[in-house]
Structure formats: structure tokens, C-alpha cells
Design brief:
Structural class of chain A: mainly beta
Shape of chain A: globular
Order of helices and strands of chain A: EEEEEEEEE
Low-confidence stretches of chain A: none
Largest sheet of chain A: 5 strands, antiparallel
Strand order of the largest sheet of chain A: 2-3-9-4-7
Helix content of chain A: under 10%
Radius of gyration of chain A: 13 Å
Mean pLDDT of chain A: 96
Oligomer: homodimer
């Protein structure tokens, strides 16, 4: 048991990844960002599907196959098929951005 | 794409279940309750594990093997092993209670 909005470190030099549930072919993670972004020129290109929701904070996500980035607000979710290349362009600074990501 | 806190019906005669992501052995659902509870004397007894989080509203969950029920606030999550019998004793009235449940 736990709370998704608790246990937030005061300092976050790197994004924080925590596995909440796992079984064969499934992994659920909480991710906490604070001003972090995918390094310039890099893309996520994943072997599994990812369903992801932003629960607190704000972010800008970009897909390689879309001209415009997407701004995400709390509650916004996306279902990203395996190998659809994407990157996090921006996350809010000065407050934690909390994601829940299901790799399936 | 969607938003977990949007598309909430004004009237909810029954709990609302929506599948958000699914693959072999994995099902992710949004559940919206509004004063609903598990019928008296009934227990959930599931063949799969369930990771569940309450995101909005409030609820009281009870496990058959625990003397005290648990009150859930936004962000509270539990990982419920298959066949651990549980029931929802109460959900808030007059506001939607929004859950995300992963059956895995």
C-alpha cells in the first residue's frame, strides 16, 4: 500500500522510477519528474506498449510522427504503441510532475 | 487519448467501468463510483491480481481477513493478490469517486 502523491524527495537530480506492480509482460511504474526532459535528439523507442497518465504537474510530450507537441495536464493519458517514437520535451519546474506508466 | 477526470456522467445509476488498455493477461480500467458499494454480504474474489488507486473522491474498502476497514483518500493505492476477498463498503456521495484498476 502507498500513496502516489507521498514520499516525494525534496531534491530530484534525476527522474525517480518506482515499480508498483509487475508480472510477466506487465510493469506499472510511478515516475516523478521535476524539470526533467529527454536529452536533446533522443527518442524513446520501446519494445512494449505504454499506457501513461500525468497525475500532477505538467509536461510537453512529442511524437516523432506528429508536427505539434502535446501539452499534458493532470488526468491526461495516452496509449503509446510499441516503437512509436516519442520524447518528453519539458516538465514543470519547481513542482513534481507525477506520472503513472503501464508497460504492457 | 483521454482525460481520467473528464466525461463524467451527471447521473450514475450504476458504477461506470471503461477499459483503457488491454492485452493478454492485463486489463486497465477506469471506474467511476458515486455512492456505490458492494452489495451487502458480497465479496470480490478475483482470479487475477488487482492494483488499484483512488484518484478522486473517497471510499472505504474492507478485506475479509482484516478486522478494520481502510479509508482511502486520493492517491492511495493497494495491490490486492488474486483471491484476497475484499469489498467496497462505501464511496462518497454527491461527487464522483474515480479509480484506476489494473488487473494483471
Amino acid at each position: 500500500m502507498g500513496n502516489l502523491f507521498a514520499d516525494l524527495p525534496g531534491q530530484l537530480p534525476q527522474e525517480l522510477f518506482e515499480v508498483l506492480a509487475q508480472s510477466a509482460g506487465t510493469r506499472l511504474e510511478r515516475i516523478v519528474s521535476s524539470g526533467h526532459a529527454t536529452p536533446p535528439g533522443e527518442w524513446y523507442d520501446q519494445d512494449t506498449n505504454e499506457w501513461v497518465v500525468l497525475l500532477r504537474g505538467a509536461a510537453v510530450l512529442r511524437f516523432e510522427d506528429e508536427p505539434q507537441p502535446r501539452r499534458l495536464a493532470p488526468g491526461d493519458w495516452l496509449d503509446i504503441p510499441a516503437h512509436r517514437r516519442h520524447r518528453v520535451e519539458w516538465t514543470a519546474q519547481g513542482e513534481p510532475t507525477i506520472w503513472l506508466a503501464l508497460h504492457y
